[in-house]
Amino acid sequence: MPFTTSVRFAASSFSIFKRSMMQDDKLPLSDVIDDQQFAAAFEQHGIDFGNGEGDVYTPAITLWGLVSQVFFSGAQRSTKAAVTRISSLLVSLGRVVCSSNNGAYCKARMKISSAVVRTIATNIAESAERRLLEHQQASDGFERLANAPPHVAAIQAGPTTGRLILVDGFTVTAADTEENQAEYPQNPAQEAGLGFPLLRCVCLISLVTGMLIDLAEGPFSGKETGETALLWKLLVHLRPGDILIADRYYCTYWILAACRLRGVHVVMRNHHKRDDEPVDARQISKHERIATWNRPARPKWMSEEEYAEMPRSLTVRLVDVNVETPGSRTRSLTVTTTLLDHKLYSREWIASVYGGRWTVELDIRSIKCSLGMEILRAKTPDMVRTELWSCLLAYNLIRQKMLEHAVADGRSPRSLSFTATLQLLATNWLLSAVIGRTSELLQLQRQTVLSQKAGHRPGRTEPRANKRRPKVLALLTQPRRAAIEELLVGAHA
């Protein structure tokens, strides 16, 4: 006899996400996962299907299956495995499942655009950041979350009034199909047919919460496809009072000028083509000086109207920072910032802020490695983007679960384990959707999320080398189809 839950609910409702996320109404910020917000995003983008009485693949069920694929790897990540999970869910609700063929699910997936998934993912980040600020302001003395990694704790102790936002870029590959190659060509350094479609991505991530604020993607190479061009598209998401933290690649006049127009400050390593100690700089102290950058000539990609809006000069503060980590390749560096008040924003605080930039590398590792986004499996560009944003939605859902428990326990979300939270949600994704919240499951999730501490890595130094030897195989030097044809011709010779 098939198991049927005594807790009935509409599988077509987006409340299924609240159930699978084991939302506890007693936890602060748990209202960020709002089924009405999910439904509003689909309505906003005009996506409506699966309204028939017997339809299985509604928008809610299809998106639930998409996210479930992200939580697993290997064979469990396939569409067939997702259909099995959906079938198991429906059977447990007393529904009769006539077929486990994945064709209908694949067609339903194609109706969910990357735009709607992106809207949901970014809305979750926006709501989480806003609710965290409201919670902190309502707390006595604007309390800071404890157990934060040293650099985060030092930054939070400073005079910040806006968000601390990390920016960095990375690449991912897609399935080698003609459609993907046409929109996301392989690395031009490789011979035709040998590489995989390659996407360049630039992301904005909150330093305090780890939530992904937004991401821009594009081809790896070509006109206006660099990381600064992608960041330019993301600047609209910045608000007055935010502080943008990045490495020296982004430290250009145009990025700083665009941030100034938006009331956004920057903390970036000085660009390698700019003098760390310009002769006309005004010295503040032995390790700090104020410099003026004049507006360069208009670049070809910028319109005359945009150029006219740019300030004719920028005043920046150059801060020398010593790197004391043993084994570090860099012993000292110069940080450029538009935070000019050296008494309010001390040299030590600026150094802590820039030191926190490394956190984004760990976040990208969580996205690419822990969630398996490094290699996308979709066969068409539209589905590549949907798969990408499904991974990012799952990432923000995990971060949201970490944030709930961190705030409830008075801890920094950066002190919790991303992997442990991922394992919790992956293991209980189907089970929680079926049986709903129970006191035992809520206690289990609290123990799992809070049991492991992470983020305390003072002075960690690792060699940039692998000990495990890879298997020695011949490299494929032509398209796989051509190689197969050669083998077949040889077999018949």
Number of strands: 9
- The CATH class name of the largest domain reads Alpha Beta
Helix content: 40-55%
CATH H-level homologous superfamily name of the largest domain: Transposase Inhibitor Protein From Tn5, Chain A, domain 1
What does this molecule look like?
The protein is an alpha+beta fold and 493 residues long. It has two domains: 15-114 and 388-451, no CATH class; 144-368, Transposase Inhibitor Protein From Tn5, Chain A, domain 1 (Alpha-Beta Complex), CATH 3.90.350. Helix content is 42%, strand content 13%. It contains 17 helices and nine strands. It has helices at residues 15-20, 35-44, 59-70, 79-92, 103-111, 114-138, 150-156, 178-183, 227-234, 253-261, 304-309, 347-355, 359-370, 381-408, 418-435, 439-451, 480-492; strands spanning 164-173, 198-206, 212-219, 243-246, 265-269, 282-285, 288-294, 313-322, 332-337. A nine-stranded mixed sheet has the order 3-2-1-4-5-9-8-7-6, with helices on both faces. Strand 2 and strand 3 form a beta hairpin. Helix 3 crosses helix 4, helix 3 (59-70) crosses helix 14 (381-408) and helix 15 (418-435) runs antiparallel to helix 16 (439-451). The longest helix has 28 residues, at 381-408. It is globular, with a radius of gyration of 25 Å. Residues 1-8 have low confidence and may be disordered.
Topology, element by element:
Layout: H1 15-20, H2 35-44, H3 59-70, H4 79-92, H5 103-111, H6 114-138, H7 150-156, E1 164-173, H8 178-183, E2 198-206, E3 212-219, H9 227-234, E4 243-246, H10 253-261, E5 265-269, E6 282-285, E7 288-294, H11 304-309, E8 313-322, E9 332-337, H12 347-355, H13 359-370, H14 381-408, H15 418-435, H16 439-451, H17 480-492
Parallel strand pairs: 1-4, 4-5
Antiparallel strand pairs: 1-2, 2-3, 5-9, 6-7, 7-8, 8-9
Helix pairs in contact: 2-6, 3-4, 3-14, 4-15, 6-14, 7-12, 14-15, 15-16
